[in-house]
Specification:
By secondary structure, the chain is of the alpha/beta class. The chain is 37% helix and 16% strand.
Length: 293
Amino acid sequence: MGCGSYSADDWSKLRKSRSLDKSSTNEIFKARSINPKYDPKFIQMREAHDSEEHPESTPIAIGVDVTGSMGYLSTQIIKESLNELMQELYSKGFVKDPQLLFAAIGDVDDVAPLQVTQFESDIRIAEQLMDLWIENRGGDLPEDYELLWYFLAKHTDIDSFKLRGQKGFCFTIGDAPCHDTLTNISIQKIFDDKVTRPFTSKQLYELVSRKYEAFHIIITRSGELFDYIMPGRVIEIAKDEVRYLPQIIMTAIQLTQGKNKEEVLSQWGYVARKVVEKAIVNLVIPQQDSIDF
């Protein structure tokens, strides 16, 4: 997947046709059950491949908690953050040929614990995001962000890593802690994969980290809840700072690419810079290992 290119005109047309400015979460996300084409048990592989149009594809996966306390976040992303993120990605050009995948993340006991779109480069990013079911089940309990880590590790085929040794990017976003373990029973139920043992969340983070730079953005809570799983990759923000998700995501990507911190922060206006600088204070970006292909 990943054909075409994202444009402001396409976004404006979609925004107008769906009346996004005036719509509630339930009006934007009309699905009332999981669509089989986004159900991981029916997905063998999601692909982010190079093409003549996009010769150096960069996969970026964004997973959003869609449980009861987090319904507002999906609305914020579709109304504001997605368009801003895509415009910045294309205008600044620091990511070559971006291809975005979105995931709706819940709990292993939900009807739809995980939903996953295709990797796309054009307006289909937004169209597929709006196809997802915002289940809104549960409350302020541990969720299963590690489901996306498992999926990306086991069920994605990305040329950036396979051909060039360059990792993709993964951002999970939510306000709850993560469960410690993903059982083999849950893996079979959700992914239809037969495995013989459970995995800890830390093991799954280490697994996805082989081909993705993975971060977690935690809202309103202390990042210590994730520090033992993914030390140095936890970003903390307040609920009223979610509007700055595009700047935060792009800053983390650029720092991972080896860009100078001061130079990266200088891109943002005064308020955005203050939010981003505070959010990334605990990030640790190790020196990238060279991979010989």
